[in-house]
Amino acid sequence: MKQRNMILALGTNAGGEAVIRKAYELLARQLGGLRMSRILTTEPVGIVSSPFCNALAEGTTSLSAIELRSVLKHTERLCGDSPELREKNIIWLDIDLLLLGSRRYKLDDWQRPYIQTLYRELSEP
């Protein structure tokens, strides 16, 4: 399968910047060359919790969306995320697929100002 562009959203309300950086390193090892945006602190959306640290990662992959999501979920678990924590509104690490090739995922997330800002910054030369 050919290489396609991908954009991933990384977020945590518990682990801080260290978890985002660890996740980025793990993803870069598994997926190859990635670029990461800066990390922004944002207020939670749709959840009562402390603020989130958020970042985007950009790269290319030959994986399908299903295969890529499997890598993302595995990385979340490696970094300490679990369903039990999420039940308590503790998001140790959430990684969402936003773009694969020409297909956008999580369309509501694309409307969030921090996603738009970080995406613009990643797109700049």
Number of helical stretches of at least 4 residues: 5
Q: How does the overall form come out from the CA principal axes?
A: globular
What value does the Rg take, in angstroms? 14 Å
Which structural class do you get from the secondary structure elements?
alpha+beta
Number of strands: 6
Helix content: 40-55%
The CA-CA distance between the termini, in Å, is 27 Å
What can be said about the biggest beta sheet? 6 strands, antiparallel
Q: What proportion of the residues form beta strands (DSSP E)? A: 25-35%
**What are the secondary-structure elements, in order, as H or E?**
EHEEEHHEEHH
Q: Averaged pLDDT, please?
A: 94
**Low-pLDDT stretches:** none
Any key phrases for this structure?
six-stranded antiparallel β-sheet; 5 helices; 6 strands
List the helices and strands and how they pair.
Blueprint lengths: L3 E9 L3 H16 L2 E3 L3 E3 L9 E10 L3 H14 L4 H5 L6 E7 L2 E2 L2 H4 L2 H11 L2
Antiparallel strand pairs: 1-4, 1-5, 2-4, 3-4, 5-6
Helix pairs in contact: 1-2
